[in-house]
Amino acid sequence: MAASLLVLAGCVPTTHPLELSRIGKNVSDAAMEQQLPAPGPVVVETVTSATWKVPLSGLLNLKDPQAAALQDRDEPIAVYAHVLRHPVHGNFLVDTGVSARIVQNPSDYGLNWLLQKVMKLDQMKLQKPTADIVAGLNGPLGGVFFTHLHIDHITGMPDIGPEVPLFVGTDEATATYFKHGATQNATNALLANKAPLQELPFTQRPAPLEPNTFEAVLDIFGDASVFAIYTPGHTAGSTAYLVRSTQGPILLVGDTSHTQWGWDHGVEPGKFTRDQAHNRESLRKLKALAARHPGMQVRLGHQ
Ligand SMILES: [Zn+2]
Known about the structure:
Oligomer: single chain
Bound molecules: zinc ion
Strand order of the largest sheet: 1-9-8-7-5-4-3-6
Shape: globular
Largest sheet: 8 strands, mixed
CATH superfamily: Ribonuclease Z/Hydroxyacylglutathione hydrolase-like
Mean pLDDT: 95
Strand content: 15-25%
Number of domains: 1
Number of helices: 9
């Protein structure tokens, strides 16, 4: 009885320790956007840590009328880690790529045979394991900012030191959902013995919002170099990062759009998404942001 109630109510993604982040200052969308024309101080490198193939019906809502001509199939994608080099604050990752240990011994990290099968782990081919990315930093890793906590975004954790601060969006670690029952053990195992998760201190603006206003925006370091944009929908705490790089603004979308087709057509992900309508709205706002700043580079969740 208790077990079935638990399944119905859903469970949290992870029971890993959680605390409130001490960094991040809430700012207006306008305060963020007025900084974007000038190049910033951060060097960004997006690394393909692994290639992968997963069903298109997970990556895209194939029920959308625009997707009528698309058939479900295994779609080639990549698993990225984004390296941010800040001249004052140091080196950071946005998401983690894939550790070689995950590919070699998945069951050591709670990825049982069923999860391996569902995730199509046999289709994951390492290109640059997380350990190599971290070794190439030329200095310590100052923190990891997660776009969200789905397994494929924490698969680099075996190669991340226990002292490295870890940051997630509001509600990402605490929102209940029935699908978390299948992944909580693996998420806990991947985070085991690592630093507590720090929840970014987004102050959600009261509804109704103006159509193109985000639900919350943070200036991470207080120097207008890296902004976190609260974009819930794909998961409860999905977060995009807008980096003022030496090459101009770079938007790290996360899985609010996994695919190029989804971004181009404004169609949200499919079965991998928690709340389609909310995901679509967050995607629309990110596209509108990019359209207002034509020099912005856009880097999607998996393509
Ligand atoms: Zn993903």
